[in-house]
Structures are given as structure tokens and as C-alpha cells.
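Researcher: Next sequence.
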Amino acid sequence: MKIKSQTDFWSGLMFLLVGLGFAWGATEYSFGNSARPGPGYFPFGLGILLAVLGAVVLFKALTIESEDGGRIGAIAWRPLGVIVGAIVLFGWALPHLGMVIALPLLVVIAAMAGDEFKWLEALLTAAFLTVGSWAIFVWGLNLVIPLWPTFLGR
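Model: Next structure:
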């Protein structure tokens, strides 16, 4: 069997393995049923869907010819490092600085990883995602997420 697209092959394999890993990890939680799903129901279904998507992409990589074999280029270490750093910073900042500061910080720093960074676009995206996250998670789902920095005492 010959790999006809390296990018599709490795992407599909990654999706397949990550999906199966999440589905397997979700088996540690209660599933419940369709009417009252438990905490393992949604991650298990999402993991299976990701694994199926990965299998389809993997199948495509082995059956459909692509130009130049879909060669993989050099790894973009700088953007990878910036995005991983932004996520780690968000993990620390959320409980300490609150969502109103941590989420825009995440969005702006992650946007800086790209070659076409524009301040206005990054700030508008950050504002939209912060308001949307507040509306969904705090207002809609009543989750307890700190909105403001802990030193403000709110």
C-alpha cells in the first residue's frame, strides 16, 4: 500500500488516534442515556466522530493521488510555540485574571502566531469571543467562571 498524500495520511492518523483516545478516556465517566446524558456521553460521541473523520482522511490519503504526493514541509516551530504558550498562559490567567482579561490575551497572542496579524482584527475577535463566551457559559449555562481579576475582590 502506497501513501499518496503525506499530509492527509499524517493528519488522518492524528485525528484517528486523538479521537480514539478521547473516546477511550470518556469511558471512565457515566454515559447516562439519550434523554439524560451523563458526563461521558458527549466526549465519547465527539471522540468517535473525530476518529471516523480521521479514518476517512486516512483512507483518502491511501487511495486518491495528489499532486507532488502531498509532501509535508518544515515544521513551523515559532507559531506552534506561540500558540502552545498562549494556551498555557490562558490556563494560568483564567483563575487569576478572570475571563475578561484572560480570553482576549489568549486570542491576541495566538493571533500573533500568524504572518498576517492585524491589531484591529485580533481585538474585534477577542471582544466577540469574550462576550460570546460570557453569554454561553456564564449567563446561559450558569457556570462559575471568574470574570474579573481576583485582586479586584469580585
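Model: The helical segments are 6-26, 41-63, 77-97, 99-111, 119-140. The CA atoms of residues 43 and 111 lie 27 Å apart.
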